[in-house]
Write a structure and sequence with these properties.
Helix content of chain A: 40-55%
CATH superfamily of chain B: Methylmalonyl-CoA mutase
Number of helices of chain B: 21
Radius of gyration of chain B: 23 Å
Largest sheet of chain A: 5 strands, parallel
Strand content of chain A: 15-25%
Number of domains of chain B: 1
Shape of chain B: globular
Oligomer: heterodimer
CATH architecture of chain B: Alpha-Beta Barrel
Strand content of chain B: 5-15%
CATH superfamily of chain A: Cobalamin-binding domain
Structural class of chain B: alpha/beta
Number of strands of chain A: 5
Largest sheet of chain B: 9 strands, parallel
Strand order of the largest sheet of chain B: 5-4-3-2-1-9-8-7-6
Strand order of the largest sheet of chain A: 2-1-3-4-5
CATH class of chain B: Alpha Beta
CATH class of chain A: Alpha Beta
Order of helices and strands of chain A: EHEHEHEHEH
Shape of chain A: globular
């Protein structure tokens, strides 16, 4: 099968115990409506998220965090991705991430941060353009 | 002749059509005596006291908690000195899940979205030097942790010589909040949760008459995207689930426990619709208790409520605008007859509130109380054609929505089947579409946007040190307590849980022996297993 024909596969998850799921669900629905294959995992440990990305062979991981633990949780996910040698995935983050943390996260390896109020069409557009595997981008 | 208007149709925030003007014709069926009455009189549409805020203002109670109990204690003191008249504890997600800071996988959440509390020691530290004999506290515990956290607060009060029968406050203890609105991955199934929740209600009704053991939190259902009448429909469905659970036990009669039930509503952005909602809620509760449950005691039929201004209406963009949003929402709640209030801070779209954010929230409420004059008269808008029409409409639609929940088997069944989650998902999707297509305007977000952020605001950052501090403290507690006593208390808790007796005496015994929250909740996780939220099982997406 031509890999370009396969739909983009996305895992959306909430690392840790923060219960705010509205943003993650809205983004999951929008990506699904745009024709992508979306697995919404809800709250999971970073290890479980990375494991499922590996098992399901996904193109994109979307993480949503609204309880201020983003720096630690995202570092954990990035470390695990590198440890498992998953380096072609697109990693996007949403949630209440203060402006000044966005460049820090992007320098750590997150590809794009979408804070509250981001336009859904911009998120869909970004994932459509960048979702497919690019070797060595993590 | 058709008049030129700026939009084709006008709708309330919940989609109710709005005409250009309302007259006596729109409320001609309203029975002024039976359906309106006076403040302090049935059906309490106009307020629960005859003179409302002329006697006493609503309580200013800001939802507060971060890092360690030590640091949260400092913030409570700051708020108290600035004129807050009540306390409200925001716990972190670890505490809400009934876990300890040394449990696996929790480190990144300890002290993050709220304060971490795991033993009675933490509760003692958090309220050190605070006058809990005079100032009431809201313990915003999840339905899983609520009984344990309340037991810690009760034990603390007793150790200070306060009689439990005089202790004033509230526990959140809302089953729906943490199973459908905020997801907790380490809690037991709703059908078992409802038993724990109602055990707390039952115990408090008999032992702590001034303590409100549940505050049904439709605030959080609303934050999931539901509208005003869906909010009330689910609110009463949840209250009915608790009432039915207690009545089927044949231990208490409706008037023995209904007076301690309280509510926690949202104040959202449609100013007049929100006022109508608060008024409708009072009349509905009166009818429900009197007509369906045959309550005799007027106190059973009085709808007492807290309001939180809507966090989901805040924007990340142009954050100072959020001050204005909160102020209007505060005013709506005041005009709606609220009993206590949290004004959400302007920076909560970005972070936990800074000290400056909290101070402005307190001042917003104080300005409403002391300067605007709205507190000088009860139900100042009562009799407005539009408001009374809208109150009737909200009430009708809320009864219809409640009926839908009942058609789906009542709240517990509707939760376990995923029906409530699907309703939320539909609603949040629709709300988002309205923002996208511009039919719902949000200033700074889909109109009056700016390329450059005009305001720079300080950001609050929880401390990553918290987990180490909390673990060390827990280890010390475990070393210094009588572990045999803890073991006995936990065995007794397991025993009474299995036998179906009220759990609270055993929970209090365990807490006083300094058993940790995680140790206590493990008893229930072992008995009932952890609930898999239906939405994660793939129903939704």
């Amino acid at each position: 099968m031509n890999p370009q024909k396969r739909s983009i596969k996305v895992v959306v998850a909430k690392p840790g115990f923060d219960g705010h799921w509205r943003g993650a669900m809205i983004v999951s629905m929008a990506l699904r409506d745009a024709g992508m294959e979306v697995v919404y995992m809800g709250n999971q440990t970073p290890a479980a998220i990375v494991e499922s990305a590996l098992q399901e062979d996904v193109d994109v991981i979307g993480l949503s965090i609204l309880a201020a633990g983003h720096m630690m949780l995202i570092s954990e996910v990035l470390d695990l991705l590198k440890e498992k040698n998953i380096r072609d995935i697109l990693l996007i983050v949403g949630g209440t991430i203060p402006q000044e943390d966005i460049p820090v996260l992007e320098s750590m390896g997150v590809h794009r941060v979408f804070p509250p109020g981001s336009k859904i069409e911009d998120i869909v557009d970004y994932v459509e353009k960048n979702g497919r595997a690019v070797k060595g981008r993590i | 002749m058709k008049k030129c208007e700026r939009q084709e149709q006008f709708l309330t925030g919940s989609g109710i059509p709005v005409k250009e003007v309302y007259t006596a014709e729109d409320i001609k069926d309203l029975d002024l005596e039976k359906e309106m009455g006076l403040p302090g009189e049935a059906p309490y549409l106009r307020g629960i006291y005859p003179n409302m805020y002329r006697g006493r203002f609503w309580t200013i109670r800001q939802f507060t908690g971060f890092n360690t109990p030590e640091e949260t204690n400092e913030r409570f003191k700051y708020e108290h000195e600035a004129g807050a008249t009540g306390f409200s504890i925001a716990f972190d997600a670890v505490t809400e899940n009934g876990l300890d800071p040394d449990d696996p996988g929790v480190a990144s959440d300890v002290g993050m979205g709220g304060v971490n509390v795991c033993t009675l020691r933490d509760m003692e530290i958090m309220f050190d030097g605070l006058p809990i004999d005079r100032v009431s506290t809201a313990v915003i515990g999840s339905p899983f942790s609520a009984g344990v956290l309340s037991a810690m607060y009760f034990a603390l009060a007793e150790s200070r010589g306060i009689k439990l029968k005089d202790l004033d406050g509230t526990t959140q203890n809302d089953m729906l909040l943490f199973t459908a609105c905020c997801h907790l991955p380490a809690i037991i199934p709703p059908r078992n949760l409802v038993r724990l929740c109602v055990d707390l209600v039952e115990w408090c009704a008999q032992n702590t008459p001034r303590w409100h053991p549940v505050s049904f939190a439709s605030y959080n259902y609303r934050e999931n995207g539901l509208n005003a009448y869906q909010e009330l429909g689910l609110l009463f469905a949840n209250a009915i689930a608790y009432i039915e659970e207690e009545l089927k036990r044949n231990r208490l009669k409706i008037d023995d426990f209904a007076p301690v039930l309280t509510f926690h509503l949202a104040s959202h952005s449609d100013f007049l619709e929100e006022i109508a909602k608060f008024r409708a809620a009072r009349r509905m509760w009166y009818k429900l208790l009197k007509e369906r449950y045959g309550a005799q005691n007027q106190k059973s039929m009085i709808f007492r409520f807290h309001v939180q201004t809507s966090g989901s209406t805040l924007t990340y963009q142009q954050p100072l605008n959020n001050l204005i949003r909160a102020a209007y929402q505060v005013l709506a709640a005041a005009l709606g007859g609220v009993q206590s209030m949290h004004a959400t801070s302007y920076d909560e779209g970005i972070c936990l509130p800074t000290e400056q954010g909290v101070l402005l929230s307190l001042r917003t409420q104080q300005i409403a109380q002391y300067e605007t004059g709205v507190a000088n008269v009860a139900d100042p808008l009562g009799g407005s054609y539009y408001l009374e029409y809208l109150t009737n409409e909200i009430e009708k639609k809320s009864w219809d929505y409640l009926q839908k929940v009942e058609d789906n088997g009542g709240l517990v069944a509707a939760l376990e089947s995923g029906w409530v989650h699907r309703e939320s998902i539909k609603a949040m999707g629709e709300y988002q579409r309205q923002i996208q297509n511009g039919t719902r305007k949000v200033v700074g977000l889909n109109c009056f946007e700016m390329e450059e952020e005009p305001h720079r605001v300080p950001v609050f950052r929880p401390s990553p040190e918290t987990v180490r501090l909390q673990k060390a403290k827990l280890e010390e507690v475990r070393k210094n307590r009588d572990n045999q006593k803890v073991g006995e208390a936990l065995r007794r808790l397991r025993d009474v849980t299995e036998k179906g007796e009220n759990i609270m005496p055993a929970v209090i015994q365990a807490v006083k022996a300094y058993a940790s929250l995680g140790e206590i909740c493990d008893v229930w996780r072992e008995l009932y297993g952890v609930w898999e939220i239906p939405v994660v099982a793939g129903i939704a997406v």
